[in-house]
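I'm stuck. Protein, please.
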Amino acid sequence: MNLSAGRRADAAGILLGAALDAIFGDPRRWHPVAGFGQFAGALERRLYADDRRAGARFAAVAVGAPVAAAVAGAWLTRRHPVARTALMAAATWSALGGASLAREGRVMAGRLAANDLPGARDQLPNLCGRDPAALDAPELARATVESLAENTSDAVVAPLFWAAVAGVPGIVGYRAINTLDAMVGHRSDRYRRFGTASARLDDAANLAPSRLTAALTVAAAPLVGGRPSEALRIWLRDGSRHPSPNSGQCEAAAAGALGIRLGGRNVYGSRVEERPHLGDGGPPAPADVRRAATLSLAVGTAAAVLAAGARLLIARRRRKR
């Protein structure tokens, strides 16, 4: 199997993996990301020190090990199209979280629509790390829409982007980086310095995917009753107001597509953040949460098709050379 055939197998694997995620959601047992989390946790216990150099060493080993394994897997399957397709499908399915994300969003929409505030508060930790105890229905809806917008990039578009760019090593490397950011990239006393490298890696890895997510959100706005022109206007105006260089792009585009306003006061345990407002509409209602879940699925589907197409385009250009 030549290089072009390998990329065609990758394209088929991307579509197959995305289909598996759409049908089954996250693997329920033996999830590779959970296994990686255990590996990274054990590595942290060995390498932890309260400084940035130790954090950089930790990130290099924690990302480098699975990427090396993925490179070896890609090399071993280079002459076997079916095996190569299966490897990419397995990596894609393991890395994506689009179906589960939308499902959790719809559960929240249902509980809010039924005025089940305790149930909605119990549901929020499945979507984000915000403290739900004091949140009312509009704030729970806002937290959910913001999480759906951000995680459409982190859990769907970004893995597909890196699969298109670098095949199996790309998607495995991205998922490792993103998982490390969730584990040690947050601002706490323990990780303020140790987690810096992981957080910066995640920012860099999501720079292009977050903007692709925003662009696809603009294009998909009519599917949820929005206008692309308005989604584009809000994205360009508000996308850089957010403290994150990437999350704001996705959240602003979603606010414009849904015709709502996001941002405000966020409580994470003992830490409180005041976020700038994104969008010109009112606060999201339960129906907007359901629309946000639909928007997330539409963006993810488009990203899968684009990723497979990009992999095929790379193969054709290689063949012409």
In short: Residues 3-320 form one domain. The mean pLDDT is 92. The CA atoms of residues 6 and 108 lie 41 Å apart. The chain has one domain: 3-320.
